[in-house]
Structures are given as structure tokens and as C-alpha cells.
Write a structure and sequence with these properties.
- By secondary structure, the protein is α/β, with parallel strands linked by helices.
- It is 35% helix and 10% strand.
- The protein is built from 16 helices and 9 strands.
- It has helices spanning 26-32, 35-58, 79-87, 98-103, 121-124, 143-148, 177-182, 239-247, 321-325, 328-349, 366-380, 383-401, 410-421, 425-433, 440-459, 461-466; strands at residues 91-95, 109-113, 134-139, 154-165, 185-193, 204-206, 211-214, 219-223, 252-256.
- The chain has a 7-stranded mixed sheet with strand order 1-9-2-3-8-7-6. Strands 4-5 form a two-stranded antiparallel sheet.
- A hairpin with a 4-residue loop joins strand 7 (211-214) and strand 8 (219-223).
- Helix 12 packs parallel to helix 15 (440-459).
- The two termini are 25 Å apart.
Length: 516
């Protein structure tokens, strides 16, 4: 049995096969595996999208009908707050028209506007001219509402969710008695600050700047969270005490309950405001029959109808109402979903279908296959699997030469190897079933030892006798060979006087072998 020589140098090219190509650099292969980075990022983007959608669905929408309504009993309604106010002796007057609600504040009352963003821009200017001794409570007003009402406040930051905090701000006690009595409440979500141009304005802030009071002729209270007023959150901490304290100070609440965007006020150009009746208890509270002063030059008080969807007086087309029909987070979420869909399309476009088996254009030599697999083992530092492969191959060659079954116990194999090549059974067991090599040098020594062992077993006389091929040298049966009927001579009659002796016939020559 001849041994196959082992070549360490580069293999000679096989005739008829193309020349080997230049190996691809590692940097190029890393660039091709971009999907290994894209898939985790896509899953993270999907998780963020699901979280944003869940949070957006969980948050109340001020534009929905029934939001903080005194007659709504669902989670976002305000029926529990209305009942709490009535239990304290506060009169609750529900109005659905902004002008009638402002007219109803004549005298000492509190105008509660749960959704200031639904008011028409031409109506916002009249909120600053409410009668004296009136408190105006706005829940999470947007920036345009703050500017139109002339409040010295701007949004200073918004939290992901409402947080329950104490009424103090930066260690300073809150100047609002209702907040001091309520204590910790869920009032910090939208925070407010005084703009630099109006730093001299008097503003009392509480609850980490989530609640602000502007003490002017019409006392205005702005709170950046709707949680203290909602049915599902009013019973938590000091929410009930804070909500009833803000609305029940004057003894009468005019609750503006809007089911949708308010229409423009009546009058030429939509600029006419309400005519406030004179308040006997407030000498300067009324403005007469002339209405509020002309504020056409201020923000939010222009003469053209920007919210009714019709063409303006100068022929300009109003903006598409579809943009205002959905909140800003909806368009942001829609953009994120479009980007996620684009990433999914790009990821799926790299493979147009399942793999298809095709014949190889060239025959790959077995040496190259072995070398490629060995390099994979080396790159993965898989010394243990490589050693198991070498030992399995050695056992597959040793067992037939040792006349052992296909799956013998390790002790039997070790004893047979030690009896054949010498040494102890422990040494053979350590070589064939020992521990994994820890270094490349140990793996190389193991491969050389296994190769030497298989060669030694194959060269022993016992292995040579066991390696005979039955089809070339058939075994000879014990005992005398049976006579060949074709080669045997026929029995001859005894010679007599009238019969000559038989002459032996020559045997036919054996057929010649085909040289092919």
C-alpha cells in the first residue's frame, strides 16, 4: 500500500481548468455582508416603530369628540371632575359655542378650555379681553394659541410621558395656593418658559414649569398635561385636588366642550367679537357695546378666513386641509413606516428566490476542497472539530486492518493498536481519544502522529495478510481438489488381442488472455 505524498507548496494547475483567480480581500468580503448589520438595525427600527405606535395610540387626542367633556364617562372624559366640582358646590355650565362661553363668563367665573387648539384663530384674540375677575384655564395650548392670546410664555420642552412631581420649581415654593394644597400631581409633560424679549413679565411657575400662571386683568393658568382632569387619572396622587382647585376657585365654571374645530366668529370678515355686558362688581370689567379693540395687526387676528377651506378675498387658494386633519406625529410615523418598508424591499431584493442547484462550470480538485475546509477551521480556531475529524478518519482506516467491528469500545481499539505497533494502551487511547489540542502546534503534532500510526499498522505483516483482495486471490478450500470432468480422460477398456492399447489424447491449450 503506497502512501500519498504531501505537498506543502502551491498545487500545479490542472490542464483544461481556468487559472486561479486573485483572492478577494477581507475588506470586500466584509462589505458584502452588509445585511448582517442591516437585519439587527431593521429589527431595532421595527421595535421603535411598534413602541411609538403603541404610545401614540395610548395617548389621548384632544381633537377627538368627548375629550375632557363633562358628560363623557370614558377614560378621556371629564365626568368625574364635573361630579367632584358639583360635590364642592361649584356650578358647572357646559357650553359648545366659544362666543356663548365667553359671554357666560360675565361676573366671577372660570372659563375652562380643555382643547385650545380647536379654537378658530379669529376667536383667540378675544380671550385676552375677558371680563375682570375671570380665570382662564388652558390645557396644553400650542404655541400659536400662546402668541394669539398675548401670554408671555413659550413651550420649553416636552416629555415622552407625563410625570408626577411636586409643586416646587428649582427649590423655590410654588406661589399658587391650589398647587401647594394638592402636593404631588401628574402635571409635568409640556414645560413653559418666559421668552427673552419679555423677561420682565410676572409669571408664576409650578410643577417643574409644567404649570404657569399669568396674573393680569384676566388671570390665565396654563397647564401642560391633561392627566389631572381625565377620568382615568384623576384619582391618582393629588390630581383631583389640583383640578378642582384650579377650576373651583370662583364658584362657577364655564366648561367649553368642543367636538371639533370651532367655526369662525360671525361678522364681516369674521373679526367681530362678543359684546361684553357691564359687570356691576367690576368697574372696568366691561368694554361696552363696541367689543374688544382692533387687533388686526397682531398674530392670529387677520381678516381672511384661514380655517373654513374657501378661497380668500384676494383669490389665493387656501392650504390643503388634509395636512391639518392629522396631528404631526401621524406624518412622522408614516414617514418612518415608509423608510422601514424601503429597507425591507432593499433587503429582499438581494435574493429573487430560493437557491437553484446548477452544475459546476469547472471541476474543483479535492486538494483545493480540503485546503479550503482547513482554512475555514483555522479561521474559526476550531481545533477541537479539526482533531475529531482527523481521529475519525484514522479510526476508519485502522478498524478494518485490526479486524475490529464498525463501532468497538475505545479500550478494545487501544489494546489492539498497542498489540500491533507496540507501546501501551494508555498511549494509544490518548492519541485516538484524548483531549482537544489547545494550540496549532499540538494540532499539527496530532495529525503527524495519527498519520504515522496508520502507516505503521498498514505496513505490518498481519495487515498485509488481512488486506488481500478476495476477487484477485480467491481462498483455497481445505482438502483434496475435486477432479475436473472436462480434463479427466474417459475410462479405457482393458487391452486385448483384438483391441490395441489406447493412445492418450493431448489436452487443449488454455485460451490466451485478452491484452486489453
Amino acid at each position: 500500500m503506497t502512501a500519498v505524498p504531501h505537498h506543502t507548496g502551491p498545487a500545479a494547475p490542472v490542464p483544461g481548468t481556468p487559472a486561479p483567480t486573485t483572492p478577494v480581500p477581507a475588506s470586500a468580503s466584509r462589505r458584502r455582508r452588509w445585511h448582517r448589520l442591516a437585519i439587527p438595525l431593521g429589527l431595532a427600527a421595527l421595535l421603535v416603530t411598534i413602541t411609538v405606535v403603541t404610545h401614540a395610540v395610548d395617548q389621548p387626542d384632544p381633537t377627538e369628540p368627548g375629550f375632557l367633556s363633562p358628560v363623557a364617562t370614558d377614560a378621556d372624559g371629564g365626568s368625574r371632575l364635573a361630579d367632584a366640582l358639583r360635590d364642592r358646590g361649584v356650578v358647572v355650565q357646559r357650553e359648545t359655542d366659544p362666543l356663548r362661553a365667553m359671554l357666560a363668563t360675565a361676573g366671577r367665573a372660570t372659563l375652562f378650555v380643555p382643547a385650545p387648539g380647536l379654537l378658530h384663530p379669529d376667536t383667540l384674540g378675544a380671550l385676552r379681553d375677558l371680563p375682570g375677575r375671570t380665570r382662564l384655564v388652558l390645557v396644553d395650548p400650542p404655541r400659536q394659541v400662546l402668541e394669539a392670546t398675548g401670554l408671555p410664555l413659550v413651550p420649553a420642552g416636552r416629555r415622552w410621558a407625563t410625570r408626577a412631581v411636586g409643586p416646587d420649581v428649582d427649590g423655590r415654593p410654588c406661589a399658587l395656593p391650589e398647587a401647594a394644597r394638592a402636593g404631588v400631581a401628574a402635571a409635568e409633560r409640556q414645560r413653559y418658559a418666559v421668552p427673552p424679549g419679555r423677561s420682565g413679565a410676572t409669571v408664576d411657575r409650578c410643577y417643574a414649569a409644567g404649570l404657569a400662571r399669568v396674573p393680569r386683568s384676566t388671570e390665565t393658568v396654563v397647564i401642560g398635561a391633561s392627566d389631572p382632569f381625565r377620568n382615568d387619572r384623576i384619582a391618582e396622587r393629588g390630581n383631583r385636588e389640583l383640578a378642582t382647585g384650579l377650576l373651583g376657585t370662583t364658584g362657577r365654571v364655564v366648561w367649553l366642550d368642543l367636538d371639533g374645530p370651532a367655526p369662525p366668529p360671525p361678522g364681516p370678515g369674521g373679526t367681530a367679537g362678543p359684546s361684553w355686558p357691564a359687570d356691576p362688581g367690576d368697574p372696568g370689567g366691561g368694554t361696552g357695546d363696541d367689543g374688544p379693540p382692533d387687533r388686526s395687526d397682531e398674530p392670529g387676528a387677520s381678516g381672511d378666513d384661514r380655517g373654513d377651506g374657501d378661497s380668500t378675498a384676494d383669490g389665493r387658494t387656501p392650504p390643503n386641509p388634509l395636512w391639518a386633519a392629522f396631528p404631526a406625529w401621524f406624518w412622522a410615523l408614516l414617514t418612518q413606516l415608509a423608510l422601514a418598508a424601503l429597507l425591507l424591499v432593499l433587503w429582499r431584493a438581494r435574493r429573487l428566490g430560493p437557491p437553484v442547484s446548477e452544475p459546476l462550470p469547472v471541476a474543483v480538485r479535492s486538494a483545493e476542497t480540503v485546503l479550503g475546509r482547513a482554512r475555514l477551521y483555522q479561521r474559526a480556531r476550531a481545533r477541537g472539530p479539526a482533531a475529531d475529524t482527523l481521529r475519525s478518519a484514522a479510526l476508519a482506516r485502522l478498524l478494518p486492518r485490526l479486524n475490529l467491528p464498525a463501532d468497538p469500545p475505545p479500550d478494545a481499539v487501544s489494546a489492539a493498536v498497542a498489540a500491533r505497533v507496540g507501546g501501551t494502551a494508555a498511549q494509544a487511547h490518548d492519541l485516538l481519544y484524548g483531549d482537544e489540542p489547545t494550540t496549532d502546534r499540538e494540532l499539527l503534532d496530532l495529525a503527524r502522529s495519527l498519520d504515522l500510526l496508520t502507516r505503521t499498522v498498514a505496513e505490518t505483516p498481519e495487515a498485509a495478510r488481512a488486506d488481500t483482495r478476495p476477487d484477485v486471490h480467491p481462498p483455497v478450500a481445505a482438502g483434496p481438489r475435486p477432479p475436473d470432468p472436462a480434463a479427466a480422460d474417459p475410462p479405457a477398456d482393458p487391452p486385448g488381442p483384438d483391441r490395441p492399447a489406447a493412445v492418450p489424447r493431448p489436452r487443449p491449450a488454455p485460451p490466451k488472455e485478452d491484452p486489453r
